[in-house]
Design brief:
Layout lengths: L2 H9 L2 E11 L9 E7 L22 E3 H8 L5 E6 L8 H9 L3 E6 L11 E4 L9 H6 L2 E6 L3 H10 L7 E6 L4 H14 L3 E3 L3 H4 L4
Parallel strand pairs: 2-4, 4-5, 5-6, 6-7, 7-8, 8-9
Antiparallel strand pairs: 1-2, 1-3
Helix pairs in contact: 2-3
Length: about 210
């Protein structure tokens, strides 16, 4: 990457775009809602069960002018979901400023491991044990979504729920490859601890992206 392009990426005026697509939000509070997803490349959090590991290496994804991303996004939906990878690897303020100027609702799905940049209508915080969220993301998250892979994740979920704001909605979501094992455990846990809700990857059941 030449220095001029690298400078634009560093500023957030270009971003390593992995993919963008119009679909139904499958997870969390907004499940069932039509939304335009923008997946940004680059992540070093390193979840072994990640289902988009191809997003990790930002160098594999072309630096794309954010004006082009906005032009594409506004054609499809009023709800835009920025995901990754880990989008907060990059400065999200330029992109979200342009999206807001178009009157769009902007959501982010993040591990919260990096500084919170950008203007967000909804923050879905999905913390990971390898790199914990920043204090600011805990304070501003609208929903906490903890992925359950094994029994220790229930302990981790409670630890994380103690750090978010009082209005944050709490979700437990089965890791897809372990769903047959952990769904009964999650159901029992939520029934015993009703401050939590169950989140499922409904888009996978619907066989859509």
């Amino acid at each position: 990457m030449n220095k001029d392009i690298q400078s634009l990426v560093d500023k957030g005026d270009m971003l390593p775009l992995m993919e963008e697509f119009y679909t139904i939000q499958g997870e969390g509070f907004h499940k069932g809602t039509a939304a335009y997803f923008v997946r940004i490349g680059g992540c070093d959090v390193g979840c072994h069960w990640c289902d988009v590991k191809e997003s990790w290496n930002a160098n594999l994804h072309p630096p794309t002018d954010i004006s082009k991303i906005v032009e594409n996004a506004k054609k499809y939906s009023k709800t835009i979901v920025i995901t990754g990878g880990e989008p907060l690897t990059w400065n999200m303020t330029p992109l979200t400023t342009k999206l807001k100027a178009e009157g769009l609702q902007i959501h982010i799905e993040t591990s919260g491991a990096y500084k919170l940049t950008g203007i967000w209508d909804w923050i879905c915080l999905s913390p990971k044990k390898m790199k914990l969220p920043t204090k600011e993301v805990y304070e501003k998250a609208h929903e906490l979504k903890v992925i359950v892979y094994n029994k220790d994740d229930f302990r981790f979920a409670e630890e994380q729920s103690a750090k978010v704001n009082k209005d944050c909605i709490l979700y437990l979501q089965p890791e897809w490859s372990k769903r047959d094992k952990v769904i009964p455990e999650i159901v029992d846990y939520v029934m015993a601890n009703p401050q939590w809700k169950v989140s499922l990857q409904t888009h996978k059941y619907l066989n859509i992206p």
